[in-house]
Write a structure and sequence with these properties.
Elements lengths: L4 E6 L2 E6 L6 H9 L11 H20 L5 H16 L17 H18 L12 H5 L5 H38 L4 E6 L2 E7 H26 L1 E2 L16 H13 L4 E2 L3 H6 L2 H27 L10 E2 L17 H24 L2 E2 L2 E2 L2 H25 L5 E2 L1 H10 L8 H4 L1 H14 L3 H8 L4 H7 L2 H5 L9
Parallel strand pairs: 5-6
Antiparallel strand pairs: 1-2, 3-4, 7-10, 8-9
Length: about 475
């Protein structure tokens, strides 16, 4: 045998494993058989952390229930704590595109923790003593219930500690803008055409409301992610696990994470479908849609600035063109909308994968986890970037906004209650066709006096029609 490998074995025989690695035979087989997206689809930190949390909790539960002796349990807990802390991330090299149950990743965790536990005990790597990857680290478990638990723990923690804080910070930045710009009366637009006045505060308040709706949807989906199927083992019956194992292990995970994880209401359903993950993905898509609406509005309002709408000023973060000097582009809006597009694509993959459960197992688990987790991370990072590099620096061009309002023909809407829709339409069309201001066309029509026009056509009143009761 070469000096740089050691021989490990599994049910199929011996496998040569790099001598310095903590993983074992089944991990090595997966590396050989699934060289698919090796550099792009390896499990990130939240997934490895989740494996460590679950294996630690399983050992604690088994020890409490008399299923595992205290000595082995202590060794497993010590090794799992190191995995949770991120000391052995490089020992988790497997990719998304493997067995659909995540068995090889589960065995990767079992092997790393067993080998590290044995190393702590003074034994050689690959000795399988005193801790065996299957008999002890995986005791009371199946990949079929461990990997769904990993899916939920990793996703829930990423939502709580990454996504929600970043999106909430953006939301608060925008909420402050609502108050700051409540006095800015601007032109509303529908069908991309001029409409009646609105305030910039109300416009931004609409963005805030959509973000709030997206966050609320994510919060509702998060609650279902807090159900864990540990103890279900292979098909949901709990075979080979102590009847109290799942509840005990889940309670330990809740304690370690500070999240209210609980046993799955129906373990069979929890293995054969991943509706909670699909619902989370759909909620992320809803949030992405709200963020895309906001980002698109920002770049349209900032368009120009001379030959576009030009009503919002965005931060000048970087040169926008390699050929046009002085050009500034809405790059943060572009990045955020590209993330939204990616989230929509991820959700399509998750929805389809979740529909493919057969009998007692859905075998699309890794790709579901990958896409949900990518959406969570991307939305969190893009929201933070947009907040820091765009939203905080947004300012109205008050002169441009005032000019657009004063030139709008849709201010004629204020005349309709007084002179009727048809006369008002005639005034607006005359102004447009003859190149007149609305006031000039109104006075020329004979339907309105100068005093009446000035009293009735008040953009600030039109933007807040019910602010202080009916207008004269």
């Amino acid at each position: 045998m070469c000096a740089d490998v050691r021989l490990e074995h599994d049910a199929l025989g011996e496998v040569a494993v790099p001598v310095e690695r903590l993983w074992g035979a089944q991990t090595q087989r997966s590396l050989q058989h699934f060289d698919i997206g090796r550099d792009r689809f390896r499990w990130p930190r939240p997934v490895v952390r989740a494996f460590g949390l679950i294996k630690k909790s399983a050992a604690l539960a088994n020890a409490e229930l008399g299923e595992l002796d205290e000595g082995r349990a202590r060794l497993i807990v010590s090794a799992a704590d190191e995995v949770v802390a991120g000391l052995w991330d490089e020992e988790f090299p497997l990719v998304v595109f493997q067995t659909g149950s995540g068995t090889q990743s589960n065995m990767n965790a079992n092997e790393v923790i067993a080998n590290r536990a044995n190393q702590i005990a003074g034994e050689a790597l690959g000795a399988h003593r005193p801790v065996h990857p299957n008999d002890h680290v995986n005791r009371g478990q199946s990949s079929n219930d461990v990997f769904p638990a990993v899916m939920h723990v990793a996703s829930a923690e990423a939502i709580v500690h990454g996504l929600i804080p970043s999106v909430t910070a953006l939301r608060e930045t925008l909420a402050r803008k609502v108050r700051s710009f409540d006095d800015v009366v601007m032109l509303g637009r529908t069908h991309l055409q001029d409409a009646t006045p609105i305030t910039l505060g109300l416009v931004i308040g609409g963005w805030v409301a959509q973000i709030d709706a997206g966050l609320a949807a994510v919060g509702r989906a998060l609650d279902d992610l807090l159900e864990l199927p540990l103890g279900a083992t292979a098909v949901g019956t709990g075979l080979n696990a102590h009847r109290d194992f799942g509840a005990r292990a889940t309670a330990h995970i809740a304690t370690q994470t500070g999240l209210a994880f609980r046993p799955a209401a129906n373990p069979v359903a929890a293995l054969s479908a991943h509706d909670a993950m699909a619902a989370a993905s759909a909620a992320l898509r809803l949030l992405a849609g709200g963020l895309m609406k906001m980002a698109n509005d920002v770049r349209l309002y900032a368009s120009g600035p001379r030959a576009g709408i030009g009503e919002l000023q965005i931060p000048e973060n970087e040169p926008g063109s390699s050929i046009m000097p002085g050009k500034v582009n809405p790059t943060q809006a572009e990045a955020l909308t590209m993330v939204a597009v990616q989230v929509y694509g991820n959700d399509a993959a998750v929805a389809f994968a979740n529909s493919q459960g057969h009998f007692q197992l859905n075998v699309f688990k890794p790709v579901i986890l990958h896409n949900v987790l990518e959406s969570i991370v991307l939305l969190g990072e893009a929201s933070r970037s947009f907040d820091e590099h765009c939203a905080r620096g947004l300012e109205p061009d008050r002169a441009c906004i005032a000019r657009h309002v004063s030139e709008s023909l849709m201010l004629v809407t204020a005349l309709a209650p007084h002179i009727g829709y048809e006369h008002s339409a005639a005034i607006a069309l005359a102004a447009h066709r003859e190149g007149l201001t609305l006031r000039e066309a109104a006075l020329a029509s004979g339907y309105v006096s100068a005093g009446e026009f000035d009293a009735w056509v008040r953009p600030d009143h039109m933007a807040r029609p019910h602010a202080s009761g009916p207008r004269e």
